[in-house]
Design a protein that fits this description.
The protein is an all-alpha fold and about 280 residues long. It has helices at about 5-10, 10-30, 35-60, 60-70, 80-100, 105-125, 130-150, 160-180, 185-190, 195-200, 200-225, 230-235, 235-250, 255-280. About 80% of the residues lie in helices and about 0% in strands.
Length: about 280
């Protein structure tokens, strides 16, 4: 197996972000005590299940990628589908093993649900458009919740759920806009994205609406007294980014600009992740 191709397939940066989201969720849930082994296992669970999702995504998307992303590992020939299948099984097994080692049945159930959603999305729901976008966005919110569960902290009625909701809304917005950029390749697989079903103008409004919902939910902790000073000051940065992205996609809703907006959205989500870290202090 081509090592560089395997790394490109896994997207380790994305997986590390999911792992860090688990750790952030653990701290934000304010557990009675922080156990380093539990945090390490939580990080690895998020990392490996995300890796599983990334690989499965490319296996199911190979024909679309031949059009949209011909340099990806499978369509470029650097990785075979058989090798990708083996890699996905190994990543899933590693992720679930780390979850089981946490000795927390609820955490194992959440991890299994996360993995199942990844498979459902890639194998069945991707063609459904908005419902598929919602599943992907759920996979951005679940790691925060998983962190709270694996650490034994508070989940219901906490800052943690608001952070998860903010991640969810920004994720839906990015997925809707991403589908605008991928509309040509999606036609080969008959993906019923918002852009293909209702046009670029409508998709722009939907994407912008979810970006703005993320901004609104990010301010709820400020209004309810749940946020600390670091969060209160830092949240301005990602909010400015997402307000800008909402305006940008509304002004120009074509595939080229959608590609730019979805990339900037990932940067905005990364900044938001850093703010969440501040909120966990």
């Amino acid at each position: 197996m081509n090592a560089r191709g395997a790394l490109d397939l896994v997207r380790p940066v994305n997986c590390a972000m999911i792992g860090f989201a688990v750790i952030i969720g653990a701290f934000v849930s304010k557990p009675p005590s922080v156990q380093v082994p539990q945090l390490a296992l939580g990080f690895l669970t998020g990392f490996f299940i995300c890796a599983y999702s990334m690989v499965v995504n490319d296996v199911y998307d190979v024909e679309v990628d031949r059009v949209n992303r011909p340099k990806r590992p499978i369509p470029s020939g650097r990785i075979t589908v058989t090798d990708a299948d083996r890699l996905s099984v190994a990543a899933l097994a590693a992720g679930m093993a780390c979850s089981i080692l946490s000795l927390n049945p609820l955490a194992v159930a959440v991890a299994a649900a996360y993995a199942a959603l990844s498979w459902v999305y890639n194998s069945r729901a991707k063609k459904s458009g908005l419902p598929g976008n919602i599943i992907v966005a759920s996979s951005l919110a679940i790691p925060f919740v998983y962190g709270g569960v694996v650490a034994g902290g508070a989940v219901a009625g906490s800052l943690l759920l608001l952070m998860a909701l903010t991640a969810f809304f920004s994720g839906v917005g990015r997925e809707v806009v991403k589908a605008m950029a991928d509309v040509e390749g999606d036609a080969h697989r008959d993906v019923e994205s918002v852009a293909r079903r209702r046009g670029f103008g409508f998709a722009s409004r939907v994407g912008a609406g979810f970006f703005l919902l993320a901004v609104l939910t990010s301010w709820v902790p400020l209004l309810t007294g749940l946020a600390n000073e670091v969060y209160s000051l830092g949240v301005v940065a990602p909010d400015v980014i997402f307000v800008y992205l909402a305006a940008a996609i509304l002004v120009r809703g074509d595939p080229a600009n959608a590609y730019r907006v979805k990339n900037i959205a990932l940067a905005g989500m990364t900044v938001g992740l850093l703010v969440f870290i501040g909120g966990a202090l």
